[in-house]
Write a structure and sequence with these properties.
The structure is a single chain. By secondary structure, the protein is α/β, with parallel strands linked by helices. 38% of the residues lie in helices and 22% in strands. The protein is built from 5 helices and 6 strands; from the N terminus they run E-H-E-H-H-H-E-H-E-E-E. Strand 5 and strand 6 form a beta hairpin. The N terminus and C terminus are likely disordered.
């Protein structure tokens, strides 16, 4: 059964057409502020925000969830098919509620994931990479802050 999102791959498949679906990905290192910035944007717009890490952590208990938890604790990549399935399910549910704009943080984590998403779903509208240089400032004790 094709997902709602994958039905948007060609304009003829839906009265809405895939060009009305916009997916923005935000990537960057741990703790850089991906979720913070995406949440702020979502609060000020109609864009739906979600974190791929949060989606995976919200999966119901199962052997697959145990594998995902283990890989995430080790800092290893979760299999692309698992991530794509979770992404597809979440976007499909929001599309059924009339949503068409999405900002997703923490995805893709590899070129393979990006290509698989575009091959199986829709073209990415925008990819934003958050980068930061770390500077040590003296405030009472040493604190590391991002500027």
């Amino acid at each position: 059964m094709a997902s709602e999102l994958s039905k948007r791959q060609t304009p003829g498949d839906s009265p809405m057409g895939f060009s009305e679906v916009q997916v923005i990905f935000v990537i960057g290192g741990p703790g850089i502020g991906k979720s913070t910035q995406c949440s702020r944007l979502a609060q000020e717009t109609d864009i739906v925000h979600f974190s791929v890490g949060d989606l995976l952590r919200m999966m119901p208990p199962s052997p697959l969830r145990d594998l995902i938890d283990l890989r995430m604790r080790r800092g290893e990549l979760v299999p692309s098919d698992v991530i794509l399935s979770s992404l597809q399910n979440r976007i499909d549910a929001d599309m059924r509620e009339g949503k068409r704009q999405f900002i997703v943080d923490g995805f893709p984590r590899s070129l393979e994931q990006a290509l698989l998403f575009e091959e199986n779903e829709v073209e990415t509208s925008l990819l934003v990479q958050l980068r930061c240089r770390w500077v040590r400032l003296r405030i009472n004790n040493y604190a590391t802050v991002c500027i």
